[in-house]
Amino acid sequence: MAAMPAHVSAAVTYTATTPRPDGRKPARVAGSLVPHRRAPHHRWATVRQQKRGGRLNNNAALAEDAPASDAKHDTGPLSGTETLTLAVFSTSSYMRHTQTNVLEEAFGASNVRSLDVSLSPTTAPLAAGCNAVCLFVNDRADAETIDILADLGVRFIAMRCAGYDRVDLDACQRRGVAVARVPAYSPYAIAEHAIAMMLALNRQLMKGHARVLQGNYSLSGLVGFDMHGKTVGVIGTGKIGR
Description:
Layout: H1 6-9, H2 14-17, E1 51-52, E2 55-56, E3 86-88, H3 99-107, E4 112-114, E5 132-135, H4 143-152, E6 156-159, H5 169-175, E7 178-180, H6 187-202, H7 205-213
Parallel strand pairs: 3-4, 3-5, 5-6, 6-7
Antiparallel strand pairs: 1-2
Helix pairs in contact: 4-5
């Protein structure tokens, strides 16, 4: 993997220097026992939507729900003394019971805005009033979206994933927006998940589970084989492969 540009890699250290409100200590992410509480409900975060097949299909008029922002904004990367106000896009339900609590504990509940929609030029106005956004794998951060975010005063993008291919780094550099990403995931968790999928494939667990739900207990086509004594080929010998 090619080295990240300096303006991207340097931003990784930002979160370690950001002051916490009220002088509180940073929340412990690993093994944290943060008490459960729901993210505060805001009128502007209520997105008028239509559902088809359980998915959002209407992001039109989202800008109408965003707060007005006519104030003059600072430019350039955030300094270590500024208070971070964060808009978290693509917030799934599982995040509200895990990651959202950690973010609120670290930066203050009033400084974290959770949005269930993905980032796009249409939804970017929902970040008005924030100086940072947190994105995931399906969020769109192309040049058009970066320009909208920068005009709103956003100067920092935190990717909660390792990949940053959906972020236009040239546009970020042009507008003075710093970018950070997750440097690595647990290689043990990914390797163990790969083993779990291999065993599930061999023993036809998903197909068998579907049959049981239908009241079909036939073993036809579900018999696997012993993996004991077999040779396993590992393609790629990085941290996960090792």
